[in-house]
Amino acid sequence: MRRVEESRLMSPAQGHIVLLAPLTGPVVPLANVPDPVFSGGMFGDGIGIDPLVGKLVAPCDATVTHLARTGHAVTLRTDDGAEILLHIGIDTVELNGKGFAPMIEQGAQVRAGDVLIEFDQDQIACAAPSLVSVVAIANSDAFEVVERAAGGMVVAGETPLLVLRAREGAAADASREASVVVDEARRHVTLAHAGGLHARPAARAREAARGFDARVEVRYDGRKAPVESVVGLLGLGAGEGATIELLGIGRQADAAVEAVARELLREAHGEVEEKPARHSSPAPLVAAASGGAVLAPNTLAGVCAAPGVAVGKLVRWDDADLDPPEQASGTSAAESRLLDKALATVDAELNTTVRDASQRGAVGEAGIFTVHRVLLEDPTLIDAARDLISLSKSAGFAWRSAIRAQIAVLAKLDDALLAERAADLRDIEKRVLRALGYTNSVARTLPDEAVLAAEEFTPSDLSSLDRTRVTAIVMARGGATSHAAIIARQIGIPALVAVGDTLLAIPDGTQVVVDASAGRLEYAPSALDVERARLERTRLADVREANRRVSQQAVTTRDGHAVEIAANIATLDDAKAAVDNGADAVGLLRTELLFIHRQTAPRVDEHRDSYQSIVDALNGRTAIIRTLDVGADKEVDYLTLPPEPNPALGLRGIRLAQVRPDLLDDQLRGLLAVRPIGAVRILLPMVTDAGELIRLRARIDELARESGRTEPIEVGVMIEVPSAALLADQLSQHADFLSIGTNDLTQYTLAMDRCQADLAAQSDGLHPAVLRLVAATVQGAQKHGKWVGVCGALAGDPLAVPLLIGLGITELSVDPVAVPGIKARVRNLDYQLCRQRAQDALALDSAQAVRAVSREVWPLD
Ligand code: PEP
Ligand code: MG
């Protein structure tokens, strides 16, 4: 190797490497080399020469680490570890060795000026697109070009062409690394399959190229994209019948190109499964009910989350644009981290979706979301977003701009199938923006009688609704006891959940009939169906009105057994609604919902003021106020809990006090300050055993003493974990009352996520196992003379009411609007019959059987 000190034409510093021209001819700047693979730097930095003489010589002392099988290219390695590719002509791999005569063998040691390959210029010039040859630094990450010949003629083995310098910290590594073998492979593939290079074959091609030590680029019609960028591949617009070129570079170029070609040809021959139907295919088909029964045409089945019938126009709620601010509020590094975190969150979500879909055998759905995962890590998108972040744009703005740029590319392609991929990009745009914390809860103008549809509503979506215009809420996913469903019931708007993705394919503005009570949505209904639905709505409204007229009176069963009908509330408005509807008390105030929009945790005085105003609004009725129940499906903006693998089994409910005792203390101080004394009882969520209760009670007593209060405050325990139901007798020794949270008790007893749409129909609190735990709770409480209420959704289920009363429940806490209807139901019951039938129900073998018996004994209106 000729060291820098020996060079007379350039004057490089010590330790630099001089490469002499390996060919004689005029210099061509790399950017002008007529092949985008070289000019784009895919092989590394370097320079071109248009050779006038058919001899390639060594530019320095080196080892021949690779000689192309076809003799058109050679890779050398210097003692310092620089890897130099010498490539004669353009696309000359396709000459298959014709015109090339290698003079050395792989592994040979060569000295500067030694002839490496002789070649027949005329023959090659006739067969290849160009004779321009390239000297490229294959490990440009370790070595940089610090000087290059300015232009003009260079003479092989004499004129210094490039000066290299090891990049800081990279030289030692580079010299230790195994040699970079730069081979290339090219292949043309004609896309015979329908749709051409659309998302799925693109994702498969990407997968096929994985694991090879080679980079593969796909070229079509003057455009190119790395195979790992599905977005880039889609942007090529290579439709059915297009011939694309695959170009591989690297040690395993041949194998990588072959693998990609094989995958694309396999697709063409139909060896892969049928293209999955997109969830947004324009015409939803007849849906099958969850029980397998075929529904009427244009009808989708769902699970009732809030009863009622509605007619209206479908409005896609979660389709509005999210609008992140352009400028970053933090440093570029911080924004970059935010983006990484959001991408990881969405990837985890999609992973779960794919896994769930696969387990259900929903191959199409799994396929769609697998592609979404691939898009999420697409280098084209991520690089573009990072570039914008480095220009001080916010992570959200950068991500949205990167996606929009690709959507614009796809839109230009005039290919319906590829343009449809824009929907996938929009989907991941929104998911990531949501993961970054953006929501579209801003007020939107809704038509009258809007039926809002979304994949899933969050509690905050619903709490900001214009209730005067919304007639029903429908969700593709979700469960009947999710918090969004609870809010829908509180608002008194019919709600249907777990309808499935087909819901999202119904065009905006389509007229629909939602019969939430029957678990059905009919789209584009006939005039007759609309008429029927409106009549039913009127009839139900009349019944409600009749019930309301007597709802202020306390109720007993026909045979005189008293039952308190209380209300579940979350806000001051709900408290007023509870009074209007005749609730005897408040059986559950979900305080986490009271502060859901806050960015900071409420202070003691804020707690006190909120509860005081609610108590004042209740006009002498008592309120059971539950301490913060955050975690799992209940998130509040001011509290970011550390990610948990299993949030429903993690730090939720009262367990939060283990990590944030200050939050509970502040709340308890606020609660203890409410007047008059006796108006408020405390309810502790997610208690597991008596030890926990004893500790919490001691803390409450301590805080009461600190505040100077001498009167005791009643403390109750929610029974929503099976262990609490089983230990009800122990808990009742220390608690003043028990309140069964059937939403969670069902979830934890049946091991069914309360928000899991696929399980929504099975996750039924009338399951005999849940009823047995209710019975056990009552027995345990009765031993110590304590009363038991139910504040889960089951309390408001007309089919459950007689059974719960029969099992010994003396308080039912339901949504305010449901109070008149439940009171009317109780008035018509016979307590002795309820007792008998409830005992029988414990022996039945399914929730459906329990429902069937209840419906038969106590028919619904
Ligand atoms: C329940 O779990 O039944 C309950 C009332 O609490 P939440 O729905 O708020 O979890
Ligand atoms: Mg609960």
TrEMBL record:
Entries under NCBIfam families matching the protein: PTBA (TIGR00830), PTS_HPr_family (TIGR01003), PTS_I_fam (TIGR01417)
Classification of source organism: Bacteria, Pseudomonadati, Pseudomonadota, Betaproteobacteria, Burkholderiales
PROSITE patterns according to UniProt: PEP_ENZYMES_2, PEP_ENZYMES_PHOS_SITE, PTS_EIIA_TYPE_1, PTS_EIIA_TYPE_1_HIS, PTS_HPR_DOM, PTS_HPR_HIS
Family: Belongs to the PEP-utilizing enzyme family.
Keyword terms: Cytoplasm, Kinase, Magnesium, Metal-binding, Phosphotransferase system, Sugar transport, Transferase, Transport
InterPro entries in UniProt: Dup_hybrid_motif, HPr-like, HPr-like_sf, PEP-util_enz_mobile_dom, PEP-utilizing_PTS_enzyme, PEP_util_AS, PEP_util_C, PEP_util_CS
Annotated catalysed reactions: L-histidyl-[protein] + phosphoenolpyruvate = N(pros)-phospho-L-histidyl-[protein] + pyruvate
Enzyme class: transferase
PANTHER family named in the record: PHOSPHOENOLPYRUVATE-PROTEIN PHOSPHOTRANSFERASE
Cofactor needs: Mg(2+)
HPr domain segment(s): 184-272
Protein name according to UniProt: phosphoenolpyruvate--protein phosphotransferase
EC number, UniProt record: 2.7.3.9
Superkingdom, taxonomy of origin: Bacteria
Compartments where located: Cytoplasm
GO MF term list: phosphoenolpyruvate-protein phosphotransferase activity
PTS EIIA type-1 domain: residues covered: 35-139
Chief localisation class: cytoplasm
